[in-house]
Amino acid sequence: MKRFVIATHGNFAAGILDSLELIMGKQENFEAFCAYCDGENDIKERVRRLIESKKSDEDLIVVTDLFRGSVNNEFMGYTEVPGVYVVAGMNLALLLELQVNQDEDTPDMIRGAIQTAQETIVYCNEKNEVQDEEF
Amino acid sequence: MIKLLRVDHRLLHGQVAFSWTNALGTDCILIANDSVPTDDIRKTTLKLSKPNGVKLVIKTVDDAIAAVNSGVTDKYKLFIIVESIHDAKRMVEGCASIRQVNLGGTKKTPDKKAISKFIFATEQDVADIRAMVQAGAEVELRQVPSDGKIRAQDVI
Question: What ipTM was estimated for this complex?
Answer without folding.
Answer: 0.73
